[in-house]
Amino acid sequence: MTLYGNGRVVLVDDGRTADRLGWLPRRRSAPDPELELVPVEGEPSLEPWLARDRPPRGSGPAALWSRSKALVPGPEAKAEWTYLREAPGLDRYLRAMAEPPRLNFTVGISGLGRVGGLAASALAAVSTAASRIDTLLLHDADGDNLERLAQELASVASWRGGAPLPRIQTAGLPEMMQRSDAFLFAAASAVPPLGTQGDVRLTQFAPNRAALAGALEAASEAEFSGLFLMVSDPVEVLAQTAFHDSNAVGGGAFQGHGLAPERVAGLALGVMWGRALAQAEARGQGERVAHRGVPFGPHSQEVLIFDDPEAPDADLCRVMTEAARSGNYRIRELGFLPYIGPALSSIVLTLPDLLAGREVLASSFVDGVYFGAPCRLQWGLAPTRRRASEPVRRQVEDLHGLLKDRMVQYGVAFP
Q1: Which terminus of the chain, N or C, has less C-beta within 10 A?
Q2: What's the predicted TM-score (pTM) here?
Q3: Which helix or strand (DSSP H or E) is residue 167 part of?
Q4: CA-to-CA distance for 236 and 361, rounded, in angstroms?
């Protein structure tokens, strides 16, 4: 066995990729590497490019469940960490992975409207020690709004001896892509006004996809290798769009020089869980549900909430699911736009845990589609497995299939 690379990451028996990277055979005197990466064959339009415990392609949402015989890697993937050798855009991610781990992070937020502005404001008041964010880069298409937020947040400070807070700086998209470890796209080009009927999230797809194009162009020019986190609605469809549009050429064919699928995620499931948990607490079940409960699916009317995936209480699941699905409408019926819960639950209470490698609620790449579930940042975001009853698995599998069809319908799925 030949190892290539003298840093924290090595490639196993892959001289061809090592030559491209300029990685030499590992010196015997070098300390043991932290990660050994084994090349495997696969389909980079449907699978993570770099993954730990890679599930078999085409296994649907099997990656969400506790390991079974069907999930044991085959002979071609004996090692824990694997990578798709033929992914065209792989090299910059291998180089980034080989760098020393970051203690603190630079986070960029583009779009400082209701959700993005509130999230930035709250994160600016959280100490770097708690959030692991040492710099917040701000961007907004409205120059006056950007300057207002920059001045407001620069004035956030604690009296003597307070813990250091994130530095607040403004940046254009090109600079943001050069500097950010994590980039949050929170721009909203067309928020439906109060009184709009139906699920307003999907109506925002076309204008927000157009707004997203500028960020994807900047990411391409910078060869961005950080986390690309989607906040704008419809979250899962736009996360899929970020992966698809950054990797597609004319006609929608896959070219693979864009964002790696495991480095893209959607942040929206936290507020759905928060709305559901409030109903469980109202019924005196809050403590148990907080410990055992779990949400699955998109930030939309299709989300599923279970009080206990192994032994669900059908009535409680129905009430919690309905609360998650209808919370958006109830706030609109009161005459307000719902943005406080999304900003605080899905971003402010999620991002620090995500950066620290703790389990969070987010939409990660699951068998070719972005799907909301508990997950954790390893290198990219990957689902954390748990036990579930067969009826729960069937419901989640059906929902996963529905979202796959939706991505095809919106033209953001590779064949």
Answers
A1: N
A2: 0.94
A3: strand 167-170
A4: 13
Q: How far apart are the first and last CA of the chain?
A: 36
Contact between 156 and 113 (Cβ < 8 Å):
no
Residue 70: exposed, middle, or buried by beta-carbon count in 10 A (0-12, 13-18, 19+)?
exposed
Structural domains of the chain ordered from first start: 3-98 (no CATH), 105-266 (3.40.50.720), 269-409 (3.90.110.10)
pLDDT digits (tens, 9 = 90+) for 370-396: 999 999 999 999 999 999 999 999 999
Rg (the chain; Cα; Å)? 21
CA distance 279 to 400: 25
In the prediction, which pLDDT does 75 show? 41
Q: With 70 as the cut, is the pLDDT of residue 72 above it?
A: no
Q: What is the C-alpha separation between 222 and 24, in angstroms, rounded?
A: 26
**Closest CA relative to residue 360, chosen from 295, 285, 287:** 295
CA-based angle 251:255:258, to the nearest 5? 110
What residue type is 83 in one-letter code? Y
